[in-house]
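Reopening this ticket.

The earlier resolution said the output was attached, but the attachment link was broken on my side. Pasting everything inline this time so it's all in one place.
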Amino acid sequence: MEIIKKIFAQKLLEVKAVKLQLEAPFTWASGWKSPIYTDNRKTLSFQQLRSFVKLELCHLVQECFPEAEAVAGVATGAIAQGVLVADELGLPFCYVRPKPKDHGMGNQIEGELAKGAKVVVVEDLISTGGSSLKAVEALRQYGVEVVGMVASFTYGFPVAEEAFSQAGVRLFTLSDYEHVVEEAVKTGYIDEKNMPMLAEWRRNPSEWKGGAQ
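Inline output:
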């Protein structure tokens, strides 16, 4: 698994899916500020990389959740990856909205799942874990069993690890923050002089405000 994490980190850097903005940090859905952002959705634009992600996510599902009977993607970022995985594995697919629609059928879960089905969730990126675990809760309320989650990337924050542990959800990812940063520094994608600021952010991301503090 360590080899895959390193390889995928390299591939993310090759397509410039990793962005660094020290003075104009990104704002996440959680409200946190971040000097670095990993856009896994860029992988969809490159056929060979798209196939790599599909197959490696499938391998994770087969190795870690062989009992899975269906796949659920978290909207909107992981819908495409979820479809690819479900198609490759020959399993039913649905996707989970952040909240029920305010019109039409009012669905939060789009698609059809058998009650009690064993479902593996596909996500593209894990930061605080909040939105991912909301999808898990929606699926449980729908009446299915969430056996676990696979994702392309995680920042590996303790708050997310604790949240997944408390929710009883096992998570496996293709790569993570440590491997991406290690490869980025090694190749010169990230200048080593920026590492102290990244380390400062990593220590307390919820309070970090930007490079001009």
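Reporter confirms the inline version is readable. The longest strand covers residues 145-154. The chain has a mean pLDDT of 94.
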